[in-house]
Amino acid sequence: MNIDNTASQMRKGVLEFCILSVIKQGEAYPSDIIDKMKEANLNIFEGTLYPLLTRLKNAEFLTYRWVESNSGPPRKYFSLTDKGAGFYKELEATWNELANAVQSITKTI
């Protein structure tokens, strides 16, 4: 069994929650999201991020606004909708339940 594959699958499982967590802290530009994720040692690439942002926007969890840029094309900044904030709370509860269960099992081993 390949540990890299298993680790990658584990990261993919929490990406959506982490992206929403970053955006929940305040309006975010995609490169800011990538930087925050890298700081946390959760590397994500644009090719992974943009489809997730689009899916979350289409589910009405995110909205965006265009901001003019002095050094290129306008930038799209994302923020949580009320529906997205509710979904985030559900994800947070699920994460806490899962993390507690895993911690309970692994600390007794």
Would you write up a description of this structure?
The chain has 109 residues and is mostly helical. The chain has 4 helices and 2 strands. It has helices at 3-24, 30-39, 46-58, 82-107; strands at 62-67, 75-80. Strand 1 (62-67) and strand 2 (75-80) form a beta hairpin. It is globular.
Outline:
With 109 residues, this protein is mostly helical.
- Shape call: globular
Largest sheet: 2 strands, antiparallel
Mean pLDDT: 93
Low-confidence stretches: none
Number of strands: 2
What is the share of helical residues? Answer: 55-70%
Radius of gyration, whole Å: 16 Å
Number of helices: 4
What percentage of the residues does DSSP assign to strands (E)?
Answer: 5-15%
Return the string of H and E elements.
HHHEEH
The span between the termini is: 21 Å
Secondary-structure-derived class: mainly alpha
Spatial order of the strands in the main sheet? 1-2
Topology, please?
Elements: H1 3-24, H2 30-39, H3 46-58, E1 62-67, E2 75-80, H4 82-107
Antiparallel strand pairs: 1-2
Can you tag this structure with a few keywords?
two-stranded antiparallel sheet; 2 strands; mainly alpha
